[in-house]
Specification:
Elements lengths: L6 H26 L6 H12 L4 H27 L11 H15 L7 H17 L2 E3 L2 E3 L5 H16 L6 H27 L3 H23 L7
Antiparallel strand pairs: 1-2
Helix pairs in contact: 1-5, 1-7, 1-8, 2-3, 3-5, 4-5, 4-8, 6-7
Length: 228
């Protein structure tokens, strides 16, 4: 049975995922110096590292490669198991969020002794989450990077300036998600720089909690309501 998604829940879910993924990525960047969710920049850095024959340059290239292939692996698994061309609340999103949280919890104990394994696990989690994106009213909702969202905001503003009629939500929705990216970055930096907290445990726990709440809501609340 398919359940029609409501715009409010789509927006809330996208904002939460954007916040958490950016907080995690900020922590990884500050700890290990490599992004696990912004692949465009990392591919550019690989190109630079290929010209750096020093041991440090080689190490950076390996780190970037691990992060990218981890991201790719996560996207492959998501595409194989859950990806759907339209948003469908009957899909097991709750269990997927708990799975992502589990990847981050597994990455925590190896962050210091095996940093590349941690990079791979966090990249895998990011790729899995990003591949859960779907088309919603013409907007591709991605929750690990903002390039497409900023493009949508800019193009729609440009169309408005040109005199075209654009529904306000086409600007408001991606703007709110971008804001949550910004707030997530602040939160991740705060965890690392001011509290020195085990950020992967915190953020992984939030994923698991959120996934559990959605799983309960989906199984108990949504399935008890008639579909119109």
């Amino acid at each position: 049975m398919k359940l029609s998604p409501r715009p409010f829940w789509v927006l809330i879910g996208g904002c939460i995922l954007a916040f958490l993924s950016t907080a995690m990525n900020t922590g990884i960047v500050l700890t290990l110096g490599t992004s696990v969710s912004q692949m465009s920049g990392e591919v550019s850095r690989i190109g630079r590292s290929l010209l750096d024959t020093s041991p440090d340059g080689l190490a950076v290239g390996i780190d970037l490669t691990v992060a990218i292939f981890g991201f790719l692996g996560g996207a492959i698994l998501a595409g194989f198991t859950i990806h759907h061309p339209t948003l469908d609340q009957s899909m097991p999103y709750g269990r997927c969020l708990m799975f992502i949280g589990g990847c981050l919890l597994l990455a925590h104990p190896v962050l210091s002794p095996l940093p590349r394994l941690a990079l791979g696990l966090c990249g895998f989690a990011s790729g899995f989450q990003n591949a859960m994106a779907t088309h919603y009213r013409g907007i591709i909702l991605r929750t690990t990077h903002i390039t497409g969202l900023v493009t949508d905001i800019g193009s729609h503003i440009g169309m408005v300036l040109r005199g075209h009629t654009i529904a306000p939500w086409k600007i408001v929705v991606p703007s709110l998600v971008v804001l949550c990216f910004f707030l997530g970055g602040i939160f991740g930096a705060w965890l690392i720089l001011f509290t020195h907290a085990p950020f992967l445990l915190w953020i992984g726990g939030m994923y698991i909690l959120g996934g559990g709440v959605w799983y309960f809501f989906q199984r108990i609340v949504l399935k008890s309501k008639p579909v119109h």
